Amino acid sequence: MAKVSAVEKNKRRRKLLAQYASKRAALKAIVMDKSRPMEERFKAQLKLAALPRNSSKTRIRNRCEVTGRPRGYYRELGMSRIALRELGSRGLIPGLVKSSW
Question: What is the pTM of this model?
Fold first, then answer.
């Protein structure tokens, strides 16, 4: 089980991402547009840098929904390999059978 503080921190980051997503996308579009004047692009870059760090998409860590584990994460399932194996062994995941030989 992961630390509760780490899981909560990640939740706050997801909330900030949703809050600033449109503003961040608009500023990035201005920065990347080569047809705009250099001064305008530079001002947009400064505004982008002034936004909260945790509102960036790269600051979010994929974590297991069951345990909060950050490593060994399967995106399709939203859980870690250990939680997947545990639930599969109990028969709680349809179509998954743990093999043993």
Answer: 0.81
